[in-house]
């Protein structure tokens, strides 16, 4: 596109009173899949900013040309853990060294769309650049985005034209919700924590995990948060009673795990399109058999060929030699909750090196073995602090995926 045509592009803030229909039309054009291939479509339920609405600060921009909306981008800002430092504490003539989180203000880009008829005109970089200006104005030190590792166009745009670098490669694990209930071992007790109890547990044990949100309390108290669940050996509770996270952390059992659940079903719906009649018939048959004979516990393909919702598991953690088994039990519990609420799948996203990954049930055909996160430092005038330049840091074993942006 020549400079004269670029001058005709107006980038402005999204106006929900008049832009919803036009934005939905651009989304529809961008989600047209290849002929003969399965494609995943997203229904934002009439709210284009639903995936950033619960973040501490957010913005959606639209690109307008000749009065027509031809592109948009969404972004949000939050404060997260980017590393840790060791704190030295003297108490009663003894010295202890404890890791404490190092926080930074980070921005996240998602939902970049350019209408197919207006691509290769420089609209993508222009939208990214304008969003980054807003990030800088609000004090963000870093900006990152996530995409499928095989989305070459997106990767090329951000790493080639916008100055981002490859950063982390987590895995998205998806498991179908069957018609039958999943059996959870009776040797494990699952406890639903109150938000204050869950916050205490997370801040004490997981605050140094990369991307841990400093406002974890806001996440846990959000109406979309289904709950936080802790798995412990059945015989580890004194008199079978839960005494609170403070007491638990002072003397935890040898093995335990925890996770929280976010209700994405009330934010957006997904739908798989492009399936052949044979695949649809096979999927329906598995559900009929599963529903008719639940005691057989046969795996069935959920009704993904019409709009379905999902539960997202986040804040996964734990320790001990049996932690993977306990994580499997927690995932089974979440499956049963999702089944009761009418969800089609349960999903999570974890670091590739996450030790608990072995205990997370998932179907490879539904999952993404390698998602790609790219990052950019927004300015050189920031202090390196105790972490240094985060973009050059090595990945840890775990990562905290914020459910508000999944």
TrEMBL record:
<comment type="similarity">
    <text>Belongs to the acetyltransferase family.</text>
</comment>
<dbReference type="InterPro" id="IPR052810">
    <property type="entry name" value="Plant_NAT"/>
</dbReference>
<protein>
    <recommendedName>
        <fullName>N-acetyltransferase domain-containing protein</fullName>
    </recommendedName>
</protein>
<dbReference type="Pfam" id="PF00583">
    <property type="entry name" value="Acetyltransf_1"/>
</dbReference>
<feature type="domain" description="N-acetyltransferase">
    <location>
        <begin position="9"/>
        <end position="191"/>
    </location>
</feature>
<dbReference type="InterPro" id="IPR016181">
    <property type="entry name" value="Acyl_CoA_acyltransferase"/>
</dbReference>
<dbReference type="GO" id="GO:0016747">
    <property type="term" value="F:acyltransferase activity, transferring groups other than amino-acyl groups"/>
</dbReference>
<keyword id="KW-0808">Transferase</keyword>
<dbReference type="InterPro" id="IPR000182">
    <property type="entry name" value="GNAT_dom"/>
</dbReference>
<keyword id="KW-0012">Acyltransferase</keyword>
């Amino acid at each position: 596109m020549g400079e004269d045509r670029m001058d005709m592009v107006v980038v402005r803030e999204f106006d929900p009173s008049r832009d919803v229909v036009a934005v939905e039309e651009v989304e529809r054009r961008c989600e047209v899949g290849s002929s003969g291939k399965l494609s995943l479509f997203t229904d934002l339920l009439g709210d284009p900013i639903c995936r950033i609405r619960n973040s501490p600060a957010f913005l959606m921009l639209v690109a307008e040309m000749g009065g027509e909306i031809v592109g948009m981008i969404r972004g949000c800002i939050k404060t997260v853990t980017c590393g840790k430092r060791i704190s030295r504490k003297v108490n009663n003539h003894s010295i202890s060294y404890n890791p404490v989180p190092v926080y930074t203000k980070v921005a996240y880009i998602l939902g970049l769309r350019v209408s197919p008829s207006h691509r290769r005109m420089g609209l993508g970089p222009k939208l990214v650049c304008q969003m980054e200006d807003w990030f800088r104005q609000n004090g963000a030190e870093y900006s990152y985005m996530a995409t499928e590792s095989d989305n070459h166009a997106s990767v090329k745009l951000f790493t080639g034209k916008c100055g981002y670098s490859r950063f982390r490669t987590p895995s998205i694990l998806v498991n179908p919700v069957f018609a039958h209930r999943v059996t959870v071992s009776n040797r494990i007790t699952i406890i639903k924590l109150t938000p204050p109890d869950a916050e205490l547990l997370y801040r004490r044990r997981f605050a140094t995990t990369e991307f841990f949100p400093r406002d974890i309390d806001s996440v846990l108290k959000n109406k979309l948060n289904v709950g936080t669940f802790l798995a412990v050996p059945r015989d580890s509770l004194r008199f079978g009673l839960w005494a609170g996270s403070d007491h638990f952390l002072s003397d935890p059992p040898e093995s335990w795990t925890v996770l929280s659940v976010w209700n994405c079903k009330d934010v957006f719906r997904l739908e798989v399109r492009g399936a052949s009649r044979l695949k649809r018939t096979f999927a329906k048959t598995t559900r009929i058999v599963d529903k008719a004979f639940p005691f057989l516990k046969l795996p069935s393909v959920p009704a993904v060929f019409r709009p379905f919702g999902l539960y997202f598991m986040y804040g996964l953690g734990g320790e001990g030699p049996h932690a993977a088994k306990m994580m499997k039990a927690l995932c089974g519990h979440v499956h049963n909750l999702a089944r009761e609420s009418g969800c089609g799948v349960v999903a999570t996203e974890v670091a590739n090196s996450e030790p608990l990954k072995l205990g997370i049930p998932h179907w490879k055909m539904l999952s993404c073995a390698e998602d790609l996160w790219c990052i950019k430092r927004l300015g050189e005038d920031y202090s390196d602090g105790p972490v240094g330049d985060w973009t050059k840091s090595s990945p840890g074993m775990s990562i905290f995926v914020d459910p508000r942006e999944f």
